[in-house]
Structure formats: structure tokens, C-alpha cells
Amino acid sequence: MAHMTNPLATVDQLYQRTSSSFSALPDDLRDIMFFATQCLTQAAGILLRIPQSVTAQAGVVLARYWLVDSPLSHEFSDVSAAALFLVAKLSAHPCPTRDVCNVYAYLLSSSSALFRENKDKDKDKDKDKEKDKGDPSTYYLSESAYSALRSRILAIEPRILAALSFDTHVALPHPLAITYLQALDFLSAPRAAISGLAVSYLNTALLSPQLLYLTHQPPALAVAAIYSAARDLGAKMPDCAWWEVFDVDREELGFLVVGMRSLEGWVRARRRDGHEDILAEGMITRAWVEEQMKKRGLRVVGNGNGGGADVEMEDEEADMMRRMDEKAAQLEG
């Protein structure tokens, strides 16, 4: 049964993820960063024509890695590419580094539709965007750029393996969900409809900043996806506590159902909170996150080039002294 279970995140790891000694990113920035990087990984898997099972495993490996190493240690897109390349290489569907680099170059370009919404009212800007859209020059990868990206991917790959102690095993709940549905006779609902919806919920859970795949085992995720799909379709579920047959208690089921169904509302809430342009102007970068942190009085300690990065809050006195020094330097200049 070991192949059907996953190593879950410990309480210490979850606490360390938000502690000030381990890149204590603000909650909203950390969640947006995680969501955007997971979306990027999913999009890359589609363009590389990798099976969803491989892409999903890459997303879980990436999430596990960020529990151990600081997210600010490397560019988010580079970590995504390294995780996908690593998991694909260990599967029956390996991808050449050239293909991986080309796909990520396209997804990060202005020609990509990922995280881009045309809300610009300026007609001139709209025309410029239309010209850039589909222009191969916007995502052309020169030999030097390819060599640099390839080197970064190959440098991050062993760091992921070392952080995970070379344990890249990921058990996915997708096959279990179909098996459970068969045992439940698909709840008398159309088989294709309820199966597809359950799988969609499982794929959506990969994007959740609540780290559902790192805190719950596949059987619980599968049951929660079936429950959510049945509710959406109005399928009649057994009157008894049927989830207990699959070794899932009511409390865990309720938490997972809320977590899976709340992601869309979470994205809308982020946009209402003043982040409407974050997921509409392309993939976010580490530089953008660091800039946002500086605006909030947070300081990134470390160069972030593989050596880790920490975040510190400047107290009022230190901030005042820094500003006085800057003012004095301007007067002397």
C-alpha cells in the first residue's frame, strides 16, 4: 500500500513556511506566487503534450521543494521548468531540454495568452499588443538565452532532489477517484460527466495555496472530489456516511470540499483586494515580489542566487535612519 500514499508535510515544515527565519513572505504574495507558478507548470505540460499525471506529479514535487527551500532562491519559472523536466525524465515521457526551454520562453512572452487580459482602454496600446500577439520574435530563444536557461534548469534539478532526499514518489488520487466512482455505480449520474468533473476538482486542487496535496492522502482527495462533483450535478449520494468506507472522516472531507471549491472565489478576492493586474499582465517574477515587499517595509536578505533568501521587517527606527542617510547623501551630492 506504500505506493498509494504520499509523504505529507510535517507541522514543523508548515510552520517554517511562514516563519520569519525562512523567507516570511506576506501571505497574499506567497499564495499568488504559488498559484501562478502551478498554473505555469500546468500550461507547460499541455504544450509539451505530457500526460496530466506527469504534470500533476511535477506540481506536487514543486510544492514539496518550496517547503524545504526558499521560494525566493530562484526565479519561479525556472523552478517550474526544473520540476517538470525532472519528473518527466523519470517517467515514460521524457522531454528534451530544448523543448522545455522553448515552451517556457513562449509562455513568458507577450504572445502567450497565459495571465494576460486585454483591459487596456488605450487604442494605440491595444494595436501594439495585437501586433506582438503571435509574433515569433517575442518568444525566439537565441543560443545564448537557451544555454543560460538550460544551465539554470540543470542547476536547480539537483537542488530539488537533495531537498526531497531523492524521494520523488507521488501517488495521485485521480485513479482512485474513478475506482471509487465505479464502486458507487457513479452515483447514478452520467459516467463521463461525474468522472470528468471529479478529475477537474483534483486538478484544481493542485493550484490551491492551501497545499491540499501535501496535507492529505490520495483517498481523502479522491472522496472530496467525488463529493463536490456529485453536489454540482445534483447526483443522489447514499444516505449513510459512505466516505467512511474509504477511510475518510467527516471533518477531513468537509475541509477538503471547502478547499477545492473555494479556489475560484479566492482568485476573485485577490483581484478585488487590489491585485487585479497581477494575473492579467503575464507571469509574476521574483523581482516583482521583492519590489512589493520593499514597498511594505520588508527587506530581502541574501542574493537569492541559490544561496537562499530571508525576509526581515525593518523597524521604524532603522527605517528612519536609512532615510536620513539617503537624504544626507543627496544633499552632499
Describe what you observe in this structure.
The protein has 333 residues and is mostly helical. 60% of the residues lie in helices and 2% in strands. It has 15 helices and two strands. Strands 1-2 form a two-stranded antiparallel ribbon. Helix 2 packs antiparallel against helix 3. It is globular.
Element-level helix/strand string: HHHHHHHHHHHHHHEEH
Distance between the termini: 70 Å
Contiguous low-pLDDT stretches (5 residues minimum) are 119-125, 311-315
Q: How is the biggest beta sheet arranged?
A: 2 strands, antiparallel
Shape: globular
Radius of gyration: 22 Å
Search tags:
333 residues, mainly alpha, 2 strands, 60% helix
The gist of it:
The chain has 15 helices and 2 strands. By secondary structure, the protein is mainly α. It has a two-stranded antiparallel ribbon with strand order 1-2.
How is the topology of this model organized?
Elements: H1 11-18, H2 27-47, H3 52-68, H4 76-90, H5 97-107, H6 123-132, H7 143-163, H8 174-183, H9 191-205, H10 212-215, H11 218-233, H12 250-261, H13 263-275, H14 286-295, E1 298-301, E2 310-313, H15 316-332
Antiparallel strand pairs: 1-2
